[in-house]
Design goal:
The structure is a single chain. By secondary structure, this protein is α+β, with helices and mostly antiparallel strands. The protein has three domains: 44 residues; 43 residues, no CATH class; 99 residues. The chain is built from four helices and nine strands. It has a six-stranded antiparallel beta sheet. The longest helix has 40 residues.
Length: 228
């Protein structure tokens, strides 16, 4: 009976040991698990693969203009390349191309005896105001302006009508706006005297034409080219 009691007593510490070791095992397991989690969290992030390089579109070197045929369904192609920051080629509709020359052809004024600035003024008025069909130049006069090729008489169609008066006003405004280029000395229209420095009204006549005087610039030698 005593042995049985002793044996029973000897089994109790084992239970206590197991009971004591069980939380430790759990603690170690949890600790091991948290260590594993910490390792995963603290791992360096995996770098994403580098994107494939984008191939830069090269720009051709030149300009090509292809006019569309008159009966073709598609528009013409305009390719304007050769510059770094150029827009992509765009389509434009074009059935014909027109080149405008900056050279001024002879106008309605007879140019014999006129000086170069007077010729430039006469040709420019003819180009800008095609309704003018008569411009006088060199003629005999008591004053030197017309005989010396320095003056023009721009004849106004229907000069007393509203349209005629408006046309004369436009011509005066045009030559004054270009006074430096044309070498304008003065203009006279409907009793008013105009200069690059201002205007005076009253008593100057010229109700049927605009009188324009230039500073001349010398007589032409035949090799001059006049530009707009």
């Amino acid at each position: 009976m005593g042995r049985h009691s002793i044996a029973k007593k000897r089994r109790n510490p084992s239970v206590y040991v197991v009971s004591a070791l069980a939380p430790a095992a759990v603690f170690l397991a949890v600790k091991a698990d948290t260590s594993a989690i910490r390792v995963v969290v603290e791992e360096e992030p995996v770098a994403a693969p580098a994107p494939a390089p984008v191939e830069e579109q090269t720009v051709p070197c030149c300009v090509e203009i292809v006019a569309a045929p008159s009966s073709g369904p598609g528009p013409a192609r305009l390719i304007d390349d050769g510059v770094a920051d150029v827009e992509p080629a765009s389509l434009v509709s074009a059935s014909r191309w027109r080149v405008v020359s900056r050279t001024l052809p002879a106008g309605v004024a007879p140019e014999t005896g006129l000086q170069v600035r007077t010729i430039l003024t006469a040709r420019s008025i003819s180009a800008v105001f095609p309704e003018i069909n008569n411009i006088g130049g060199v003629r005999q006069d008591a004053l030197r302006w017309h005989p010396d090729g320095l003056a023009l008489d721009v004849m106004i169609p229907n000069p007393t009508s509203q349209a005629g008066i408006a046309l004369g006003n436009q011509i005066v405004a045009y030559v004054m706006a270009n006074a430096e280029r044309f070498g304008i000395q003065d203009a006279i229209w409907r009793g008013a005297y105009y200069t690059p420095g201002g205007a005076k009204a009253g008593g100057y006549g010229h109700y049927d034409h605009v009188h324009v005087t230039t500073t001349g610039g010398g007589y032409p030698d035949g090799d001059e080219v006049y530009f707009r």
